[in-house]
Amino acid sequence: LKVEVPASPAGTNKLVLRWPSVSNKIYAVAGATNLQSSWSNAKSNIAATPPQNTETVTVNNASSFWRVKVK
After folding, report:
1. Angle at the Cα of 39 (from 15 to 4), degrees rounded to 5?
2. Which of 46, 51, 42, 54 lies closest to 17, judged by CA?
3. Cis peptide bond N-terminal to 20, omega within 30
4. pTM beyond 0.85, yes or no
């Protein structure tokens, strides 16, 4: 999956994640401090909204990496 992270306005702690979606699928978004650490779920049970899903997540200083999983 391709994840697009547009620039956030200065001073905010939110990111908008966008990815291509498929009908009848459920997604989850997770964040991590590095690629070898454990992932923390930011949002789960996200219903598909084809052709594209959009989710806003809160960014803390520890989360540098994001992934989208298909359930």
Report:
1. 30
2. 54
3. no
4. no
pLDDT digits (tens, 9 = 90+) for 10-21: 557 778 888 999
Asked if 37 and 67 touch (Cβ cutoff 8 Å), the reply is no
Helix/strand/coil percentages in the chain, nearest 5: 0, 50, 50
Q: What is the distance of C-alpha 5 from the center of its chain?
A: 9
Alpha-carbon distance 29 to 19, whole Å? Answer: 11
Q: How far apart are CA 20 and CA 24, in angstroms?
A: 13
- Per the document, the length of the chain is 71
Is residue 39 within 8 Å of residue 29, measured between CB atoms? no
